């Protein structure tokens, strides 16, 4: 099921002008990938409305500037600011570990 | 019936209507949501939602954000609708082309198979994790996978970029938002220019006789149903009271206009028990 979505989403992402920068990165549809890839096209930080980076290792969406991370649980991103800030607060310096 | 862990919500807390309390109400009702909707409205809520999607009349390729759409009722109807429109489009195409080679005909069928939704997409956004989980489970059960995503988010602070969606819907959700004006502003922000706002919500019945019968039903029958079916009188009493507190048609129309929407209008269903408000970002 997810593989099928990945294929369709990959096509969509290729078609889209890809101007969103941070969030539209490499697409390898892996089986069991928790987050719906096409969602990244729409999601931004609810506070700053800036693009987010998907961190695969921790399965989170990270706002580098504000130094906060939104968790993804069961494939559903939790974009409630209160929940993210208190449980996953990281200093902005840590966000410099770019792939 | 599966054992449920429900927290009893005090009547006083409910009356204050704080966000946390409202959250608990929906945590309680999430599991029984669909069953209760059918019982309370005698199944008519399905017709209301059908009418909403028909009014939307989405064409394939439409991007919809369904806010407070927890269990997916609107999202599934949207997907069904665009799928059937797309099927009809492809059939029309075949019919209008005379002398097609067998290759061209089979290519057309392949097109339909590989892209049955025509790139339509719906993002379901809800503040309540339980409602989303229930919706996701339902989607799997009913076989919906393509073009459907789930996001935990707050209608007053949407995690979406500006000018993204063709249509924004909020069905039976806006009355539970604390700051309706903020939700409307967010709706305006995330819609593309030319995008449409659609709100399906309980409203006010002006006919005095009908209004009395409706009140009787709401206050005498619904909480009882809530207790019998979901074991939760208070949550359903809250629901009934929240309906009474909600602004009537004209007032909601004014609020929608305040958010910047144009050509705002409403359509009463069942004499105003329910109303569909519509506006455009122009």
From TrEMBL, chain A:
Gene Ontology biological process terms, A to Z: protein stabilization
Superkingdom in the source lineage: Eukaryota
Subcellular location: Mitochondrion
InterPro entries on file: Trm112-like (IPR005651)
SUPFAM superfamilies hit by this protein: Trm112p-like (SSF158997)
Comp. bias (Low complexity): 13-26
GO cellular component: endoplasmic reticulum membrane; mitochondrion
Keywords: Mitochondrion, Transit peptide
Residue numbers spanned by region Disordered: 13-36
Family: Belongs to the PREY family.
Protein name: Protein preY, mitochondrial
Protein source organism: Gallus gallus
Organism classification: Eukaryota, Metazoa, Chordata, Craniata, Vertebrata
From TrEMBL, chain B:
Lineage: superkingdom: Eukaryota
Known role: Methyltransferase required for the conversion of 2-decaprenyl-6-methoxy-1,4-benzoquinol (DDMQH2) to 2-decaprenyl-3-methyl-6-methoxy-1,4-benzoquinol (DMQH2).
The keyword Oxidoreductase is annotated on this UniProt entry: no
Family: Belongs to the class I-like SAM-binding methyltransferase superfamily. MenG/UbiE family.
SUPFAM superfamilies named in the record: S-adenosyl-L-methionine-dependent methyltransferases
Protein known as: 2-methoxy-6-polyprenyl-1,4-benzoquinol methylase, mitochondrial
Listed pathway(s): Cofactor biosynthesis; ubiquinone biosynthesis
Leader peptide range in chain numbering: none
Membrane topology: Peripheral membrane protein
Subcellular location: Mitochondrion inner membrane
Any GO CC annotation of this UniProt entry: extrinsic component of mitochondrial inner membrane
Pfam families: Ubie_methyltran
Family matches, as PROSITE patterns: SAM_MT_UBIE, UBIE_1, UBIE_2
Complexes and interactors: Component of a multi-subunit COQ enzyme complex, composed of at least COQ3, COQ4, COQ5, COQ6, COQ7 and COQ9. Interacts with PYURF; the interaction is direct, stabilizes COQ5 protein and associates PYURF with COQ enzyme complex.
